[in-house]
Design goal:
single chain, alpha+beta, wza like fold, 23% strand
């Protein structure tokens, strides 16, 4: 083999190596050649979820809450806008919905009411998904009237008693008749019961059973 032939082969090999090097360098700088980042599974699930859907537990009201008359409920049936709506619990404790008809809501928790509505809808809708949210809690309230600093309507929280209610209303005004306080309580049949409360006795430890636990819709009157 001549010297000329050897030189040609060396030059060809060198050129080939340079081309390979340039190609590898260009590939490493091309973003499209990089491996695609692994998608976040939670984000992907949220993006792929049909519009208007939500996780099963999202938006539920407190399961310990008991629905009562005058409460405003937001009832959503997924993909059924004609059934979904906001309703107010009537004084008889019932609500009305398309396809469902009249349904007892008072005395139920939001979760129980969801189950009741779901059962009614199964005859018309395949696998209905129902969510019930209490948007306005009007049943869990008491009225405090008369000779107190701040008469008005108050949310009933926990195990509030008559003494608690007097404190919520800012205490007595001058000349309040502390021995003649009473609670008006509506019965299930619509009748009203009057329960006496003698403040002076209770704070002295006499007849402490007068300091009763208040119930929703009670009215405390301080003459």
């Amino acid at each position: 083999m001549t010297l000329r032939t050897n030189l040609i082969q060396i030059l060809q090999t060198t050129a080939l190596l340079m081309l390979i090097s340039v190609g590898l360098s260009a590939q490493s700088q091309d973003p499209s050649a990089q491996p695609a980042p692994r998608p976040n599974s939670e984000k992907s699930a949220a993006e792929n979820r049909p519009a208007g859907s939500q996780p099963a537990e999202k938006g539920r009201s407190d399961d310990s809450y008991v629905i009562g008359a005058d409460d405003v409920l937001s009832i959503n049936v997924w993909k059924e806008p004609d059934v979904s709506r906001s309703v107010t619990v009537r004084s008889d404790g019932k609500i009305s919905l398309p396809l469902v008809g009249e349904l007892q809501a008072s005395g139920e928790t939001p979760r129980q009411l969801e189950q009741d509505i779901t059962k009614r809808l199964q005859s018309y809708i395949s696998e209905p998904e129902v969510t019930v949210i209490v948007t306005e809690s009007k049943s869990q309230r008491i009225n405090i009237l008369g000779m107190v600093a701040r008469p008005g309507t108050y949310m009933l929280t926990g195990s509030a008693t008559v003494l608690d209610a007097i404190a919520m209303a800012g205490g007595f005004k001058d000349f309040a008749k502390k021995k003649s306080i009473y609670v008006l309580r509506a019965g299930p049949d619509g009748t009203q019961k009057r329960i006496s409360f003698n403040y002076n006795e209770v704070i002295k430890g006499v007849n402490p059973e007068q300091n009763i636990k208040l119930m929703p819709r009670d009215t405390l009157v301080v003459p």
